[in-house]
Structure formats: C-alpha cells, structure tokens
Amino acid sequence: MGKENGRLGRGQIANMNICYQMYSLDYFFTSTKRLGLSSIELWGAPPHLDQRFISNGELYRLKRRVRGEGLRIVCYTPFQNGRVINLADRDKSFREFSIGWLRRSLEIASCLETDKMLVTAGRGLLDEPASEAFERAADSLGRLAKTAGRYGITLLLEPLREDESNLVCSLGEAAHMLCRVSDPALKAMADTSPMYAQGENFTGYRRTLRDDFAHVHLVDGDPDGHLALGDGNLPLKKYLEELIELGYNGTMTLELIADAYFRDPEAPLRRSLRFLSPYLEED
C-alpha cells in the first residue's frame, strides 16, 4: 500500500557531501539548508572527514555542529574503495586491515549518533572462484555486523555495478549475503544505477528483502553514472511511483558524482529536487 497522500516525505531526501569535494563541510551544511533539506548522508573522506586523523573529540564537536544547523545524519558512508579497503581480499593481512578500518568507521558513526553505515562486500580476483571471495566477504561482514550490533548501528550492504565488484552486484547476491551472514545488524539497500544495470526494481527489493530493505541511493544514469535526476535516461518516474505504491518510508540519498557538478553542486541538486517535486509532500 502507498502513503495515504500518494507522496514521499521531503524529510526522506538526504543530501550527500561527496558532490561537494571542492568546498568545505561548512559550505555543504549551508547549501543543504538552502536546498530546503534537513537530512544528510555523510561521506567520510578528505577534505571533509579523514578517518586516519580525526579524534573522537573532533567527532563530538562535529555532531554538535550538525545538530546546531538543524540537520541530522541519516547514514555514515566511509571511504572503502576496493583497491584500498577490501573485505574479500585473499591476503589475510589486507583483509584484517580492512575490517579494522570499518570498525573504526562504526566507532565514528556511533560518535556522530547515526544509526546506519554503508558497507560493500569488496571484490575477488578474476582468476579465483568467486565463491571463495564471497565466503571471505561473508566472514568479514559477519564480524563487522557483531560490532555494529553492539553499537546499535545497522550496516547497509550496497550492491555495486559489475565494473566495481564481482561479488554483490544484484538483488539475488545481496539476499544471498544477508542469508549467509544471518545477523539482524546487516541489511541491504538499493542504488538505482546498479539496480537498473541488473534489470531490477524496487518492488523486487521489497518482495525479496521485506524489512531488510533499508535505504536508497537515488541517481540518474546514461545508463551508468551517478547523475542528477533528469540528466540521464533511467526510468526514475517508474521507480518513484513504485516507492510510493510500496509505502516506502526509509531514506533516499541524492548521491551525485560527476566532474561537471563539482564546481557548482547546488545546480544539479536543485534540478534533482525539481524532478522530485511532483512526488513529494507539500511543505
């Protein structure tokens, strides 16, 4: 069933600082408020947040700053490029480093008082059985889920495009991983770019995952990429109608990533919000 008014809530839409890499975090906060948004997904990478050096004291000050701006962090997304952080790596030392990195990410999320953190399964080598890398990823995610549970944080497993991972790229692979790990602290999310690449939709996510479907990255593509809504050719109107019909009340982040956007990130975000306006509740 959809919402009674047939709209999504504006508070469900989150801005993300990954598009603001040429600006300060202060500018990102101010820009988010100018856009009329109150939710953010915080990308944990320089120049905004460097996990290697930031102290817990600095994190608590950041948390107070976010609250003072009238914003809330709906998800923490740590840097986890597959060549640098890889939960499925065959090298045990590298894998343990990756687990340690993401355990620190969970501590950061706890300091910032957000209850969700994005995670990916990593990738295996192409000259080894994918099943072996999948099992390494499952073991790593299981260990992280136990830590997340102690913090009261939900890990959001994101399927990636096949040029980014060879382990969890589809709804079926995400469901398999959740079944394999079998920990309530691990749930799954959908990004419209890999979802489209797999020929999937939100109805399938909800039917398969039920309450384990917990977050969305809402982007356009041509067909790949992370474009502003309306800048590509994905069937976004159909996707949004599905979310309304499903009564989806979770968060949806505008994860825009394109060189053309970095100098003026507000412009593509405003276009995205105009695209969304027929589907959002009125203020």
From TrEMBL:
<dbReference type="InterPro" id="IPR013022">
    <property type="entry name" value="Xyl_isomerase-like_TIM-brl"/>
</dbReference>
<dbReference type="InterPro" id="IPR036237">
    <property type="entry name" value="Xyl_isomerase-like_sf"/>
</dbReference>
<dbReference type="InterPro" id="IPR050312">
    <property type="entry name" value="IolE/XylAMocC-like"/>
</dbReference>
<feature type="domain" description="Xylose isomerase-like TIM barrel">
    <location>
        <begin position="32"/>
        <end position="277"/>
    </location>
</feature>
<keyword id="KW-0413">Isomerase</keyword>
<dbReference type="GO" id="GO:0016853">
    <property type="term" value="F:isomerase activity"/>
</dbReference>
<dbReference type="Pfam" id="PF01261">
    <property type="entry name" value="AP_endonuc_2"/>
</dbReference>
<protein>
    <submittedName>
        <fullName>Sugar phosphate isomerase/epimerase</fullName>
    </submittedName>
</protein>
